[in-house]
Design brief:
There is one protein chain. The chain is built from 15 helices and eleven strands. With 351 residues, the protein is of the alpha/beta class. A hairpin with a 2-residue loop joins strand 1 and strand 2. The radius of gyration is 19 Å and the shape is globular. It starts with a strand and ends in a 13-residue tail after the last helix.
Length: 351
């Protein structure tokens, strides 16, 4: 558990992956373009001494992920967000079944989310039911710019997508994580436009729409939608690294989000393995607004606000009792492996 100025901060990383972009798994040139674009994002924001090689980056093993997340990464729990890209990769890029292998081994550390693509019709609805039955998913990750045959994307406000959202509501899958904002080669930026979140959020007030990457570079569009839709949240993956490399820009982003959404609707995410959480969590916790930004936006990025962003808001969406979770984590396999038990309190009692 992260310590900031002597205070505990429980960190739930709302956006992590366990991907396979090895050359053996690539079946279309788009797969090579995709992972190289990811790698450009990685090297563009990562401190020089923490950069991975491209070959490391293509496919990392479970041991490395556990070390990066929990051994050195200040992270208490992570939420897997699947990304399939079946047109590019033989076995998929980052599938729920692959993520669930780690989730099943460490159920106290990982939440495994599902996914859907409305272009899959009835078969996709049955697949969503399978994900709920086998993994009890409480959220889904959506990739509206994913290719499928001749289609280069789909809209969240379409009749077909609404059928899937109705299915999510029926199954008790309440958290809808939509990638909205940054594009990745060769996908289409306009297919990641945040505009289609508006009608979906209005039509399904019982669901939570977590807009991953806060719509960047369309931050204004996202904020104006989120301001009027109380069930829309902002996921900081991709925005968070600005805290390290462009702190003033990060302050502008946080100022806008805190002004329009408030401190209860913003979730931290590392986007691992795009970036390692160790330096990212430290940068987030050290980030401050300038005096001019505090005056302009009328908000504070203080410790209590950061506690909500770094874990408490995700805990609320996923029904995680943080105090009870500390008791469980104290004696789990990860604490034993990385000698973390003392972080969770000597007097706590685990299962």
């Amino acid at each position: 558990m992260y310590q900031h100025e002597g205070e505990d901060v429980f960190v739930i990383d709302g956006h992590v992956h366990w991907w396979d972009a090895s050359k053996e798994n690539i079946k279309h040139e788009g797969g090579e373009q995709f992972i190289r674009c990811f790698y450009d994002y990685h090297t563009g924001f990562t401190p020089d001494e923490r950069e991975w090689s491209l070959e490391e980056y293509r496919k990392y093993d479970a041991d490395r992920m556990l070390q990066d997340m929990f051994g050195s990464g200040h992270t208490d729990m992570g939420i897997f967000q699947p990304t399939y890209l079946n047109e590019f990769y033989k076995e998929g890029f980052n599938t729920i079944d692959r993520c669930a292998e780690l989730g099943d081994e460490h159920p106290s550390r990982f939440v495994v989310n599902g996914r859907f693509d409305p272009r899959e019709g009835e078969a996709g609805l049955r697949e969503l039911e399978r994900q709920k039955e086998e993994y009890d998913v409480k959220g889904v990750k959506l990739y509206t710019a994913e290719w499928r045959g001749d289609s280069k994307g789909w809209r969240l406000d379409s009749d077909e997508a609404f059928e899937y959202l109705e299915k999510c509501a029926d199954l008790g899958i309440r958290n809808i994580h939509a990638h909205k904002g940054p594009t990745i080669r060769p996908l289409n930026r306009d297919a990641f436009d945040v505009a289609d979140v508006d009608a979906a959020a209005t039509s399904f007030p019982e669901l939570n729409f977590i807009v991953e990457h806060v719509g960047l570079p369309r931050l204004d569009d996202f904020c104006w939608i989120a301001a009027q839709e109380p069930n829309v949240y902002g996921g900081l993956a991709v925005a968070a690294p600005f805290a390290e490399t462009r702190p003033r820009k990060f302050g502008e982003i946080m100022g806008e989000l805190l002004y329009w959404l408030g401190e209860d609707r913003i979730l931290y995410g590392s986007d691992y393995a795009l970036w390692e959480p160790e330096w990212l969590v430290e940068a987030m916790m050290e980030a401050e607004l300038t005096p001019e930004q505090r005056e302009e936006y009328g908000v504070e990025l203080d410790l209590e606000t950061k506690r909500k962003i770094m874990g408490e808001n995700a805990a609320r969406l996923y029904d995680i009792d943080i105090e009870r979770q500390k008791e469980i984590l104290q004696d789990d396999g990860i604490s034993e492996r990385f000698d973390l038990a003392d972080q969770y309190g000597e007097e706590a009692t685990a299962d």
